[in-house]
Structures are given as structure tokens and as C-alpha cells.
Design brief:
Growth Hormone, Chain: A; 414 residues; single chain; mainly alpha; 79% helix; globular; 0% strand
């Protein structure tokens, strides 16, 4: 299997193009918001990000019982409309010097729709009628595109901040969201787009509570999925606190070389580079034993955080950021392979959204504890604590996943 296999199906290519622009917009928006809050409020900015993560978690739970009733790519289209409007309001807020809570509200809105946007993309691919091998290739490409956005997004934010100033970076996110929206409208107008209303046997008309219970039940049937979900929450918390927020604080405090958004963008770019390279390499392998990939990924990420805490020179931060990021694709691609191979597309959407709910919950808890941890452990100590948690989860995974995981059949979860 080649490192990069471009989709031959026209509809899949169009979805992929939407993901490129939407992913770039997401990363540019996130970098801009985090930097603006840290620059304005310091470590107290963490408290302004907590509502954003809490709202995203709640939105994901609500969507599990409401949005699964609709075609997934149609949900993604509506999510893109909301992101365009939110990014425009955020840009005007920063440009006009309006109160910071208005910016936080827009960040909350963007975070609330992201679980439904990304879940709609992954579930929507399953509805395009692509044969199994091609679907695996396209899914890997889309997953790697999200990773590539972590390279190009921060790089774009850095370049724009140097040329025009950090206030105008949010305008770029609005433009990128707008490009994705145009492409989704084009897909929506196609008669064979595959985003018409799904057949009744593939829909789930259950309420929020029943949908959440079913998602938990699906995860509970598989030790592999349970381990993946729990460690994904821990990994996401470590990433948002130990990397995104801690790096922003480190660079804005002058402890490293340059206290500029451009330096933060460079380190984040290197994180994305390590993420993409590892993702491309893993995508060429059959992933015959997902537990090994999960454990190895958590161990590698944990070691990377420990190295990040050891040296604060800018260039070493870039190297260790790439090492840290290399662990995530192991777990993510193993998860995608496991889920897409044995579940209805409606359940694929549930599980993918539920995974993102876990990620937001992990970030919420980590960031809520962030100011306290930084006050007692310092920035380096907090980063080390994040790495230690992931190393421990890897050790526990070696013992807990020693026996082969139970793989549900397609008929079992109907």
C-alpha cells in the first residue's frame, strides 16, 4: 500500500478536499485562540478554555441521540456553516477589542460542532459505496489529512502573524472554513453524493440516553475499545495541557528563545510533522495486532513528554514535539480499523463521536487542573506529569491486553 493513495472516487475526493480546508481552518483557529488568551491572561486563560471543552463534551453527548438520525455528511455541511460564522465573529472581536468572553463564546461554538463535523466525515465515507480496500485507503488518507493540517495550520498562523500581526490570523480561519463550505455545497448538489437520507435500517431513532447507553455498551464488549477510549482521553488531556497550553506559557514567558506566536507555531508545526510522518508509516502496515499499536503509541507519547520537560531550548522543543506526536497515529489508525471493520455506519458515527467526547472530557479535566498543577509543579513538572501518566497507561496496557481482544461480528451488534 503506498504512503499516499489519492481517492479515485469523485465523491470521496470532494470529501477529502473539504477535510483539507476544514482541518486547516480548525488548526489556525485553535492556535489563534489559545495564543490570544495566554498572551492576554497568562495561566488564568485555562479557565476561559474550560467552558469551551465542557460545551464540546455536552454537545457530543446530545448529538449521539439527535444527529445520528440524519445523513452524516449533511450534518457536516451544517457544522461548516456554523464554523464560518463563529470564526468571523471571533475575528471582529479581536480586531475591535471587544471583551474576551465574546471570543470564548465563539471558541465554544466551534468546539461544539467539531465532534459532529469529524464524525460525519468518517461515517459519511462508509456511505459512499466504496469497496472495502479503497475505503480503508481513503479513511487513512482523511485521518492523515487531519494530521497534515497540524503542520500547515500552525505554519500558516505563524506566517500570517509575521506578515500582518496575530490579530489577522483568525480571518484566515474564516476563509478556510468558507472554502470547505463551498465544497460541501457542491457535494450537496450532486445527485449521487450519498448524503441523502439514510435507509431506515441504518438509522437510530433512539433518544439521547439510549444512544449514549448503546455507545457505552459497544465499548464495553471489547477490551481493546475500552482501553482505546480511556487512554485516548488521557492522551488528549496530556496534549492540551502538557503541549498546547504549556508550550504557549513557556514561549510567552520568555523562558525559551522567542516569546512570539511564530515560535509557538513552529513548535506546533513540528508536532504535526511527527504526527503525519508516523501516520503515513503506520498506514502502510496491516495493523494485524491493534493492541500492540495502542500500547506502543501511548508509551512513545509518554516518553516524548518527559523529553519535552527536560530541555526548553526552542530547537530541542521542536525535536521532542515530533517524537511526542509520533505516538498518536498508532492508536488512532488501530481504532479506525477496528471500528470500520465490524459495525454499522450508524454505530461507526456513534463510536467516533464517543471517542471525541472522551477526548474533550480528558482535555476538560486536564485544563481544569492545569493552573493548580502549574502553580505547584511548574511548567516543566506539569509536562513531566503528563508523560508519566501515559507511560503508566502503556504498562497497564501490556498486562490488560495480553490476551487477544474479542472482535464483534457484524451481526452481533445489529
Amino acid at each position: 500500500m503506498p504512503l499516499i493513495a489519492l481517492p479515485r472516487d469523485t465523491r470521496a475526493s470532494l470529501v477529502w478536499s473539504c477535510v483539507i480546508f476544514g482541518g486547516l481552518g480548525t488548526e489556525v483557529f485553535s492556535v489563534s485562540v489559545v495564543w490570544y488568551l495566554v498572551e492576554s491572561l497568562g495561566s488564568a486563560g485555562a479557565y476561559y478554555l474550560v467552558p469551551q471543552l465542557a460545551a464540546a463534551t455536552f454537545s457530543g453527548l446530545l448529538g449521539a441521540g439527535v444527529l445520528d438520525r440524519f445523513a452524516p455528511l449533511r450534518v457536516t455541511l451544517y457544522a461548516e456553516v456554523i464554523r464560518v460564522l463563529a470564526a468571523l465573529v471571533a475575528f471582529v472581536t479581536v480586531l475591535a477589542g471587544w471583551p474576551v468572553w465574546i471570543l470564548v463564546v465563539q471558541a465554544v461554538v466551534v468546539s461544539m460542532v467539531r465532534p459532529h463535523h469529524d464524525a460525519g466525515v468518517m461515517a459519511g465515507l462508509s456511505r459512499l459505496g466504496i469497496e472495502r480496500d479503497a475505503l480503508r485507503s481513503v479513511s487513512s488518507l482523511v485521518d492523515n489529512t487531519f494530521r497534515i493540517a497540524r503542520i500547515l495550520g500552525p505554519a500558516l498562523a505563524s506566517g500570517l502573524s509575521i506578515l500582518f500581526g496575530s490579530r489577522y490570523v483568525l480571518a484566515a480561519s474564516a476563509v478556510l472554513f468558507g472554502c470547505a463550505l463551498v465544497l460541501f455545497f457542491r457535494l450537496d448538489r450532486s445527485a449521487a453524493a450519498g448524503i441523502d437520507e439514510p435507509p431506515p435500517e441504518q438509522t437510530d431513532r433512539a433518544g439521547v440516553r439510549a444512544a449514549v447507553v448503546r455507545s457505552i455498551g459497544l465499548v464495553g464488549k471489547s477490551r481493546l475499545l475500552a482501553y482505546a477510549f480511556v487512554t485516548q482521553a488521557l492522551n488528549a488531556g496530556a496534549w492540551y495541557l502538557g503541549f498546547v497550553f504549556a508550550m504557549a506559557l513557556l514561549l510567552s514567558s520568555g523562558s525559551a528563545n522567542d516569546a512570539q506566536l511564530s515560535s509557538f507555531g513552529v513548535v506546533t508545526l513540528c508536532y504535526g510533522l511527527g504526527n503525519v510522518v508516523a501516520g503515513l508509516v503506520v498506514a502502510t502496515r496491516p495493523i494485524a495486532e491493534p493492541p500492540r499499536y495502542l500500547v506502543a503509541g501511548r508509551a512513545l507519547a509518554g516518553v516524548g513528554y518527559l523529553l519535552l520537560a527536560a530541555d526548553h531550548h526552542l530547537w530541542w522543543l521542536c525535536v521532542w514535539a515530533a517524537v511526542t506526536a509520533a505516538g498518536t497515529p498508532f492508536a488512532d489508525l488501530a481504532f479506525i480499523k477496528t471500528v470500520q471493520g465490524g459495525y454499522r455506519w450508524a454505530d461507526v458515527s456513534k463510536l467516533y463521536r464517543f471517542k471525541m467526547i472522551g477526548e474533550y472530557a480528558g482535555m476538560l479535566v486536564a485544563l481544569g487542573c492545569g493552573p493548580l498543577l502549574i502553580a505547584h509543579l511548574g511548567i516543566a513538572g506539569t509536562i513531566s506529569a503528563c508523560g508519566a501518566v501515559l507511560v503508566v497507561t502503556a504498562v497497564l496496557g501490556v498486562a490488560g491486553l495480553a490476551r487477544p481482544p474479542r472482535r464483534p461480528s457484524k451481526g452481533e451488534d445489529d
